[in-house]
Amino acid sequence: MFITNILLKKAKSKNILVLMESAVSGHQFTMVRERLADKLELQRFDPYIQRMSLYRERKRLRSLN
Fold this sequence. Notes:
Elements lengths: L2 H6 L6 E8 L5 E7 L6 E6 L4 E14 L1
Antiparallel strand pairs: 1-2, 1-4, 3-4
């Protein structure tokens, strides 16, 4: 491997953008989390059903700087 290949490699970003989806109604929003962290699960107000609902990480969308 040449030294130029080592210098030109991109570093992986620390954060990623993920899609969160409600387990009840399917409402979605995006959130930022660290790349090495576990998948997110949180309770948040769901505007479709006007109540608190469980949101789970659905998929990774992109890397952030």
